[in-house]
Amino acid sequence: MMRAKNLLGKAVVTFTGACAFVAVAAVVWIMGTIVWGGHRSITWAFLTQAPSNGMTEGGIFPAIVGTFMLVLIMSLVGVPVGTITAVYLSEYVDRQSKVAQIIRFAVNTLAGIPAIVFGLFGLGFFVNFTGKGMDHLFSPTGTLHWAQPNILWASLTLALLTLPVVIVSVEEAIKTVPRDLREASLALGVTKWQTIWRVVLPNSMGGILTGAILAVSRGAGEVAPILFTGAAYFLPHLPKSVSDQFMELGYHLYIMTTQSTDVEKTLPIQYATTLVLLMLTFALNFSAIFMRYRLRKRRVFA
Amino acid sequence: MPSDSKSIDPGSDAAVPVPAESPAGSLPGGRPVSVLTPKPSEPNMSANISESASGKVPDAESPANPRPGSGNRRVLTMGKPLRLGELAIEKSIQGVAFVSLLFITLIFIFIFKEAIPLFGSGINKAESHATVEASETYGEDAAAPSKPEAPELAQKASHFTPAELGGKTWQPVSLDPKFGLLPLFLGSLKVTLIALLIAGPMGIFAALYTSNFAPMWAREGMKPVIEILAGFPSVVIGFFALVIMASVLQNLFGFEYRLNAFVGGVAMALAVVPIIYTVSEDALAAVPKVMTEASLALGATKWETALFVILPSATPGIFAALILGFGRAFGETMIVLMATGNAALFTPHIFEPVRTLSATIGAEMAEVVFGDIHYRVLFFVGALLFIISFGLNATAEFFVRTRLMKRFKGA
């Protein structure tokens, strides 16, 4: 009886352990295959040259630059908005109040909307509505300038998509700022905003940075929202202004694997592109996890 | 920090009692303050909220200022020029905070706005009737003058009725386009269910393992690894499924088409496991220690406790995890776009290519004519995805917030 029970217990532990192990093994398998398949193709030339010969040779430089610009504009918009929202939620309103609950509901909803719907929204709102409106305003001659997919609209779409990431992360960080600090500041007669600006925000800088990093890593990997808001198949030049189209790593990978003229021949390029994209998000995520770990530790020992 | 808003605005009463109290209050936060605040705050707090909501803060504030002692007045007069700035800042912060709400509304409006004309707008129907007649008499070319240019396009528009969305054929680009969404819906469902059948047990048991059985090193090692899986861009998983996994699975199961619902589902499982794992783990960790200890004290072994006490108490949370996983899989685009073969077949077989709702948008949106029926149908599909994910998230939140918390509070 006892022995059977012990055996059953061992079986349970082994089985659940196996499940966890499979999940980990999948990560290792994916990483291993991609690193193995891509590491030889990553050369300096690959990283600094444009695709050539009908996208079957050459490098991915424009895609790297495009991704960089995309996430840069995205964070310039998304991180401040997200931070301010988090500040409002945690410093200005009561957690239980209607206002806070409504905003939180909006943020949660935003986080749950599929990426492709953001893409549709970007097309419908930014490109076809805002863009058209701007064209009406700025160029009465009727030239199409803003009412077409470009890097600005793609970035704004992504900023919207990654907004919840920033908000959650910053809020978590603001919570770790000890109450005593705030009260000490307020007791000195300092106003609320000054307290936030000089005490709360500097102390939650880590969280803001974590949020920004997580948002960038998420944004760099999302392809669905930029499918029709600005990403281009191939461009002979780098984007010069925010109203240009751009190439992006994830989109480039998607194009290369599904619509390339010669899928077999470009396989090394596909692997290498995947590896670059993966390394980028991996590095970002890793630093975010590390920072969050430090943040949590501080909450315990502060 | 709820009580903050109270203790700050009348800067005066914050100045007097708090310094005396705060040294006593250690980190866990607000203990002494909550002793201090409840009595005055209960009337005050609600007033404060309604003030900030109705934007009456300055008027309500300034008469309140002279009330406290003269020592405080000095602080206030010094701060007076700042007060206006302070108010402006608060208002602009409030404005920015509403951005997410604004955009949720805009997303709702703009997705639906583009899809609405599909349904029962009189113009659409009248036009279609006219063109049906036109196309019927087209051979005699009597009605041709009414639509002299682009008869093909007119014909395209002519056949559409909302009922057609329930059809079994998805053939948007042809002379006689058909916009039946059933095969797409079925495709999404197939892929999602396969993904959940794999990822559900895997994520839940893995969470059970790391939260209950795993030795320290395994726990510390596994959590970040699974978090890394969550950070994989979906296009990378799609690439992996398309290039490697499809072949491996084909060799293993010997199915006919290399890319099919099964491959897509397995790939999707990779994307969903981290969500199910994380949410389940949170739910399992939230089970009160008392329950575990009671079970152990009664002589139950560790695994019995885990399986019969902890797991059942966390069911609402685990259910929420499954719902969230479902939502994620249903809306995910890039993986299915790359790994399912994208043929809109209406079959129950899991080893045949499928086309999902999301992949349809992804694949076709770039090529449609702005404003035509196909464009609107794709927006309608987007609206469907929006509603479905919205409903699923709301359900999941309901389960976590009410059921799970109530259960633990009752315990």
**Percent range for β-strand residues of chain A:** under 5%
Mean pLDDT figure of chain A: 87
Q: How many structural domains of chain A?
A: 2
Number of DSSP strand runs of chain B: 2
Structural class of chain B: mainly alpha
Q: Percent range for helical residues of chain A?
A: over 70%
Number of domains of chain B: 3
Q: Would you kindly provide a written description of the structure presented here, covering whatever features stand out?
A:
The complex is a heterodimer of chains A (302) and B (411). With 302 residues, chain A is mainly alpha-helical. Chain A folds into two domains: 1-38; 46-301, MetI-like (MetI-like fold, Orthogonal Bundle). Chain A is built from eleven helices and two strands. The longest helix of chain A has 37 residues, at 2-38. The model of chain A has no long low-confidence stretch (mean pLDDT 87). With 411 residues, chain B is mainly alpha-helical. Helix content of chain B is 72%, strand content 1%. Chain B has helices at 4-8, 11-15, 17-21, 31-36, 38-54, 57-64, 70-97, 99-115, 122-136, 151-158, 182-213, 216-231, 234-253, 261-285, 289-297, 302-313, 315-331, 334-339, 357-364, 373-410; strands at residues 170-171, 178-179. In chain B, strand 1 (170-171) and strand 2 form a beta hairpin. The radius of gyration of chain B is 30 Å and the shape is globular. Residues 1-80 and 122-156 of chain B have low confidence and may be disordered. The interface between A and B is large, with 101 and 113 residues.
